Amino acid sequence: MQLTAVIVFYQTKLAQALTLQTLKTSITPALRPFLSQIHFVLYDNSPQKQVPTDLDWLPDFDYHHDPRNLGLCPAYNLALKQAQQNNSHFLWLLDQDTALTTEFLEEVQQQLSANPAVQAIVPQIEAAGKLVSPRALTAPFKVVPLAAGQRQNALAINSAALVQVAFLRQIGGFNPEFPLDFLDNWLFYQIAQAGGKVLVLASVLQHQLSVMTTRNIKLPRYHSILAAEWHYYHQYQKIGEGRYRWHLLLRFASQLLLKRDWAKAKAVLKLLVGYRPV
């Protein structure tokens, strides 16, 4: 297969997921041969197993159910094994709520045919009306957008990214230290550390990014995000304790004074006064 794709689901009927719905409507007659060269791994983290229905238009897919809901990492690593078996050049990372477009698929097809010497190919991503990905890896806590073209030190979110299978094998697959949050930071940091390049496409996709509004994040998930962030900036992209604590102070003030969310402010305060996540 030219390409292996993985779509991760959670408590969503497969055929009703935005990603599959928009993929179906974006496939033109000219793109059908391209679709036929993609093996899809549908990885379902939902509590209940589903029977895939209304997916006859999808030429080649496997369904995997894992009620443990262990995040993205197990799904990505399983798909990576299948990508290696398929001799795929790239692994395409997808979630259930990214709106794909014909223009994006055409651009991916064109770039794959050109066989670019890059470690990742990513679209530009908008969420809540803001361009959030890709951005400069060298500017933590800021969104410094990167224009289309081959870029170094790029940080992109996982959604709709294509990652070179050979590079993923080189780094040992996806890191289980980051089962969900900051897995994308870790991945693109590895690309930057290896001197790799990221091809930023001209296509802009819309994505429903849950972390854009912390009010909608449940407290256990917020704790998970803070722990992953602390681990990433202390074990990988080390930015200095003073800089990190200033970031925490601003976040604490935002949660306490602007959002008036004492529970989340308290979670940040614990890190400020010395608590270290396990």
Highlighted features:
single chain, 278 residues, alpha/beta, ten-stranded mixed sheet, two-stranded antiparallel ribbon, 37% helix
Commentary on this structure:
With 278 residues, this protein is of the alpha/beta class. The protein has 2 domains: 3-206, Spore Coat Polysaccharide Biosynthesis Protein SpsA, Chain A (Alpha-Beta Complex); 214-273, no CATH class. Helix content is 37%, strand content 21%. The protein contains 9 helices and 12 strands. It has helices at 18-26, 32-35, 73-85, 102-114, 165-170, 183-193, 219-235, 241-258, 262-272; strands spanning 3-9, 38-44, 61-65, 90-95, 98-99, 120-127, 130-133, 135-136, 149-151, 154-155, 162-164, 198-207. Strands 1, 2, 3, 4, 5, 6, 7, 9, 11 and 12 form a 10-stranded mixed beta sheet that branches. Strands 8-10 form a two-stranded antiparallel sheet. A hairpin with a 2-residue loop joins strand 6 (120-127) and strand 7 (130-133). Helix 7 runs parallel beside helix 9 and helix 8 (241-258) packs antiparallel against helix 9 (262-272). The radius of gyration is 19 Å and the shape is globular. The model has no long low-confidence stretch (mean pLDDT 94).
